[in-house]
Every structure is written in C-alpha cells, then in structure tokens.
Amino acid sequence: MQGLDQVMIACRDTSHTVARFLYAWKYRRWLGAGEVLQKILARAFFDGLQTTENIVCVPIPLHAKKLASRGFNQAEVLVRELRVWSVAVLPLLLRKKATITQVGLSKEKRKENLKGAFVVNDILHQQIDRKTTIVLIDDIVTSGTTLTECANALRRHGFHHIVALVLHRGT
C-alpha cells in the first residue's frame, strides 16, 4: 500500500470468524469480543516487530461524531493490550473531517471520501524522533485508503518508517 513500508495482518481468517467478531463488537456492542481481539493483535505485534524499542503505535482516529455514536474507537481498544506491555501508544493523528462509512464504496470513492480527513497532532509530533517506527493500528483493511491517507499525513511531517498492523483483511 502506498506510503507504507509494511502491512501486517494479525489474523488471516478464511472462515470469516474474525469478521463476525469485529461486526458484533463494533455494531452490536459485544464488548467481550474486544478483549479477545486485543490479544490477537498484541501477538501479531510481537511476532512481526519483535521489539518495543523506538516504536510508537498510533491508533487510527475516529471523528468526534462517529466516536459519539459508536461509543468507542475500536483501534484505541485494540492497543490496550500493547499498553500493558509498555508499548508507546500516542494519538499522533487527528481526524478533522467527518466522512461517510467506507463500507460499500469503490476504491475511488474511498479516496475522495478520505481526502484531507487526517492531520498530524501539532503538539505530539514535535516530541517524536523522525527515526521512530510509526505503527498505524486499525481493525480492518480493505482497499488500504485509510492507512494510505494516514501514512501520507505522517510522511508530510518527516516520518520515514511507517508500518501498519491491522486485525483483519476485509473483502
């Protein structure tokens, strides 16, 4: 995916079990699924990166309106297990633009929908060494548009090594 050095998928589930867990968690508020999904993501983090040094995890932000309607940001919940292991987690990105859901949109419509949606936190970015590996965290990747937009915003601020860790690959 454009702008990313690597994309790690925590669970390559062909039976769609993880997709069902994600749906139940995000849209039916089955919060118990979140704990299981956190552990899957944490395992993939340590298997894929094998260190916590010089790494900052950045959950993909939700717009305030979406956060208010859902009640939680799934990416922020997913990183809770990583915090237990003293992994640095910072809200380095902000979502300044409310967008419609990406579900059902073509790749071109997704790009148009997310253009300019993310900005870098002006205060936090000054505190992070540009040699730090930024790990974008999200629940699902389909076209990669969200991750690409976030990576592009970070690259414009001088970050050079950006990877993504997502729980599941959508279709």
Coarse morphology: globular
- Please give the share of residues in helix: 25-40%
- What share of the residues does DSSP label as strand, in percent? 15-25%
Report the order of strands and helices. EHHEHHHEEHEEHE
**Largest sheet, strands/sense/barrel:** 5 strands, parallel
* Biggest β-sheet: strands ordered side by side in the sheet: 1-7-6-2-3
User: Which residue ranges are poorly predicted, with pLDDT under 50 across at least 5 consecutive positions?
Assistant: none
CATH fold field value: Rossmann fold
CATH architecture: 3-Layer(aba) Sandwich
Q: How many individual β-strands?
A: 7
Using only C-alpha atoms, the radius of gyration works out to: 15 Å
Global structural class? alpha/beta
So what's the CATH class?
A: Alpha Beta
User: In oligomeric terms, what are we looking at?
Assistant: single chain
Per DSSP, the total helix count is 7
Intertermini distance: 15 Å
